[in-house]
Amino acid sequence: MHFENDTVVAEGLEGFFGNYRGTFRSESGQVTAHLFEQDGWLIAHVSMPMGMEVDEITDPYLGELHDYARKYGFETRLRIVYAE
Questions:
Q1: I need a surface site. Which of 7, 17, 18, 50 has the fewest CB within 10 A?
Q2: Under 8 Å between Cβ of 82 and 54
Q3: 26 within 8 A of 60, measured Cβ to Cβ
Q4: Cα–Cα distance measured from residue 6 to residue 52, given in angstroms and rounded to the nearest whole number
C-alpha cells in the first residue's frame, strides 16, 4: 500500500472534510486519494491527472482503499468521492 501523511492536505483541509487519516498515491501516480474520517465514515476523495477519466485508470487502487478501510475498522463504512 502506498499511504503517506501529506501535511499540506492535513493542515489545509482537515477541518473542512473531517479528520485527516492519510493520503494514498497509486504506483504510477494515476490516482491520489485523500482519506478523512467524518461522522464514523472513511471518505476517500479520489482524483486523477487532468484529462483522465475513471474508466481509463489502470493502476490498482480500489482494493488498497478497501484494505485500508478494513484494517482501521471502516469495512462497511467506506465512501469514495471522485473529483471532477
A1: 50
A2: yes
A3: yes
A4: 23
Please write the tens of the pLDDT for every residue from 71-80: 999 999 999 9
Nearest Cα to Cα of residue 59 among 14, 28, 82, 22: 28
Span 32-70, pLDDT tens digits: 999 999 999 999 999 999 889 888 999 999 999 999 999
- Pick from 45, 41, 40: nearest CA to 13: 45
- Domain spans, the chain: 3-82
- Cα separation of 26 and 31, whole Å? 5
d(CA 44, CA 80): 5
